[in-house]
Here is the input.
Amino acid sequence: MTDLTRLPAADLADLLTRREVSSVEATRASLDRIAAAEGDLHAFLHVAGDAALKRASEIDQLRADGHDLGPLAGVPVAIKDVLCTKDMPSTAGSRILEGWVPPYDATVVARLRSAGLVPLGKTNMDEFAMGSSTEHSAYGPTHNPWDLDRIPGGSGGGSAAAVAAFEAPFALGSDTGGSIRQPAAVTGTVGMKPTYGGVSRYGAIALASSLDQVGPVSRTVLDSALLHDVIGGHDPHDSTSLEDVWPSFADAARAGASNLALSGLRVGVVRELHGEGFQAGVRQRFDEALALLAAAGAEIVEVSAPHFEYAIAAYYLILPAEASSNLAKYDSVRFGLRVTPEGGGTVEQVMSATREAGFGPEVKRRIILGTYALSAGYYDAYYGSAQKVRTLIQRDFDAAFSQVDVLVTPSAPTTAFKLGDKIDDPLAMYLNDITTIPANLAGIPGMGLPIGLAPEDGLPVGIQLMAPAREDARLYKVGATLEALLHDTWGHPLLDLLPADFGRSRAGATGHASPAHLVPPPGPGTEPDGGTA
Amino acid sequence: MPDESPSITADQVQHLANLARIALTPAEIEHLAVELGSIVESVRKVTEVATPDVPATSHPIPLTNIFRADVVGDTLTNEQALSGAPEAFDGRFRVSAILGEEQ
Amino acid sequence: MRYSISLGLALGCSIAESSRFARKNYFYPDLAKNYQISQYDEPIAFEGEVEVELDDGTLVRIPIERAHMEEDAGKLTHVGGATGRIQGAEYSLVDYNRAGVPLVEIVTKPIFGAEHRAPELARAYVGTIRDIVRSLGVSDARMERGNLRCDANVSLRPRGQEKLGTRTETKNVNSLRSVERAVRYEIQRQAAILAGGGTIIQETRHWHEDTGTTSAGRPKSDADDYRYFPEPDLLPVVPSKELIAELRAALPESPAVFRRRLQTEYGFTDGEFRDILNANLLVEMEQTVAAGAAPAQARKWWLGEILRIANARGVEAGTLISPFHVSELIALVESGRLTDRLGRQVLEGVVAGEGSPDEVVKARGLAVVSDDAALLAAIDEALASQPDVLAKIRDGKVQAAGAVIGAVMKAMRGQADAARVRELVLERAQG
Here is the structure.
C-alpha cells in the first residue's frame, strides 16, 4: 500500500477526489508520522490530532454526500505558529504568548478551512520570526531531518522540517527576510514568498509590517501553487492587500511542468549574489542548475545589483524599527503573559517585568535596536537612510528586470549549519539572509526550490528565483520547469534521498554528537495528540 | 549620529529599555551595549548611499487611497475580546495602578 | 477622510496633495497597540484661519497651524482612589470600545496680543470650532461628552520681549466656560510666578472644575521620544482635486455668515441676538425654527425655561432637549392644546427623559380642558358659591370675574385656557 505521507499534496488530492483514499486515512497517516518523528524533529508546537480527525471525517462525509468540494479538500496541512488560529494556541514561538488562543482566525487560515484543508497543528519557529535557525524559539529548536545536528533554517524551520520529513504534505509559512525560502533551501523543500500584498497579513502576528508575507511551503512547485491559489487574493482586512485578480498559479505550474522548453526566457544571475562568500557545493549545484536552464533554451545573463550590498544593513534597521513598534502590544494587559514584580507594582512595572520575562534575547536585542534606530536624533541617519536604500534596491531590480525575465541566486550562502554555531553571533546569523532580503525590501516574489545536495556535506542546496512584483505566476511556471528538468536528471525527487534515520548514521560516521543528545527534551506542545498546555 | 563613533553606552541602553518597557538586568544591559555597538557599526553603512536626492520607500508596493465604507464590520464580542486577558473585571481589562499620565 | 477634508476646508486650510499616517510610539494602557496612529509630517490640512467673534462683536482672526487625523485611545476608569483620579487609585479598568475611532486634532499657531481678552478669546475660538464641527455634521461636538476636547496652551511674554515665554498645556477642560476660566487661572498663576521672579516649568497641567484651579501634571522631558515613523499598515491618502472641489462646494456657510443671516431672517435686535450667542444656542435656534417654530417663540423657550433648567443643573441648554422637541412643544402651545404653564410641565417631562412632548402630554394627561360643558359646569358652581360676584359683573364691574376665573382654573387643575374661561364666565353672567 502507498505510504500516503510521501505523496505530493496534488496526488493525494486526486485520490481523495476519486474517493480512493479518505481524508481520515490521510490525516491519520500524517498524525502517525508526526508521532514517530516528532521526538527527533520537534517541528510542531501543537498537534491538533482529535480536531484534525474530526474535520477529516466531516470532509469525507461531505464528499460522500456528493458535495462538490475544492480541489484540496481533505488534504492535511501544517500551519506556522505565527498565524492566528481560533482553535489552537498561537504563540509565534514566544513565551509571552504561551497558551494564547486567539478569538479569530487569520484570513489565510480561514481560507484553508473553507477550502476543506485539514489543519494538523502549529509549527515551530524562531520567536516572533526573528532568526534563521529556530534556535530562538522559546520552546526549543527544530532539528533538520537531513541531519538532526543541524538547523532547519528559520524562522519557519518547523514548517520546512515537517514538510521535508513527510509529517505534512505542505504547510503555511511567513517570510519577512527569507523565513520561507531559507528553510526551504536547507531542508530540500519548495517555498514561495509571494508579491507583497498578494496574500493577506490579517491575523499573521506582525514582525515587520512592510516586509512580512505569508506563503506556502511544500515538496513540489505545484503543491505550493495549489496552496497559494487557496490563500491568495484581496482581503479588505489588510489595507496593503492587492486588489489584483490573480491567474491560477496551479495552472502556471502545470504549464511549466508540461513544456520543458525555455527558449526565449532570459535568466539573470545577480553578480553580487554569486561566487565569493558562497559554499563551494552551493556554487557547484547552482552552476549546474544554470546549465540545465541554458540547455533547455534559456538565455543566461549576468546582471548587476550594486546596492544589494546595503540590503542587510537596511533590513536590520527597518525590521527592528517596525518590530519594536509591532511588539509593543505584548504588555500583559489584553492577552498573554503577565508577570507582577514581587510585592506588586504599577502597571508600568508590570509591563516591564512581563516583557523582560516573556521575550527571549534575540527579540530584546532587536526591540532595543529598533528603538534606537527610531529615536530622536538618529531617525534620519538610520531609519531614514534605510528607507532610501530600499528605493535604491528597487531601482536595481527595475534595471535588472528590464534585461531579464527572472533573476536567480542561490537561496542561501551555505547548506544547513550546525545548531549552536551562530547562536552567539547575531551578525553572522544576519548575514545568512543576504540572498533573500532584497526581495522583501522590494516587495517582489521569490521562490526557493531544491537543486541537489552539496557534494562536501550531502546537504540540500536551493536556488532562488525572483520575478517582478505581481509576476508570481512566472515563478511557478519557470520553477516547475526547472523542477521537472532536475527530476528527469536525478530520476526522482530530491527528498527521496532523505535519510530514514534523519542522518544519525552520518553523525556517527563523522564523529558528531550522539543521537541521544539531539532529542529535544519533552515539553509542552510536543505530544502528538495532546497539544500545548 | 553617523559621524561620531556609533558605540553605545550602558546608559543609552537603559534609556532605550525604558522606552521599550523592558526591565533588562544590569548584565543584559552591559551585554547589549557591546552587541548593539557592533551591529550599529555594521548597519550604519546605509548612510554611504542614502543621499538627499534619493526618496524614501515606506511601502514596497505603492498604493494610495485604500478605504472602506464607514460601517460596522466584523467585531469581537465582549467575551471574545476579554478571553485572553490576564485579568478582567466588569467587562473591562483590569490593570494595576497607573503611575504615568495620559499623553 | 471626507469629514477631515471638509473640516480642513472650513478652517480655511490647504489640503495636502498627499497625506500619510505615522505611528506615535509610547506605552500607556489606554492604547491597545501601545502606539497611536496619528499624522506627523504630512497632515491632511494645514495653514488656515478662522474668524472668531468676541462678545462685543469684535472679530479676531485665529491662525491655524494644521489639522491632522489620529485615532482615539480607550477609556480608563481609576478605582479605589478617593477621588476617582489616577493618584491613589488601587487599580484601573480599560475599555477599548472608543479606541481606534478617528478624530481630528486642530492646532492653532500662537495667538499674540489677546492680552486681557485671551480667556474670552479662547472660549470664543473653541465655541467657533464647535459651531463649525456641528454645522458640518461631523460630530455633535459636546464637550461634556468628550466629542470635543481642548488642550489650552498658555504662555506669557513681558512687553518688549521677543522670545515667547515658557508655555503650559492645560488638559481636562470640559466646557466652553471652563476654557475661559482655565485660561484665566493659568494666566494669573503664571503672572504671579513671573512677578515673583520665578520661572515657569514646561508641563502638562490639569484643570479642576470644582476648585477652579490647575494642578501640575507630567513635566515635558527628554524622555518623551515618540519615535514617529510612517505607519506601514496604512497607505497614503491622495485626495483628488475633484473630491476637494466637491467637498468645498458642499461646505455650509461659515459661522460668522450664518450668524449674520439668521439675525436678519429672525429680525432680532443686536441685544436679542447677542443673548442667543452668549447662551451658545444659535444652532439649536436655527434647528428649532427649521422644524417649524416662530423665531420669537423659539427664542422665548430656549432663553427662558430651558436655559433656567440648564443653569440650575450646571449643564449646557443644548444637552437637555432636542430642537425638534422644542418645536413640537411650541406647536402644542400655539395650537392652544397647552397653556404656557402646562408647556413648562411638558418640558420638564421631556427633560426627564419621558419621551417626546406628545408622549409626555399623553402620559401625564396634561392637555387643556377644551370641553365647554365641563367648563360651564365648573363656572356655574363657582358663580353659585359667589353670588355677589355675579351681581358685580352684571353691574358692569367686569374685573370682578377674576375671582370666578381663578376658582374655575383651580377646579380644572390649571388645565384650561383662561381666556376661554373668561369668555364663558362673561356669557353666563349676561345670560
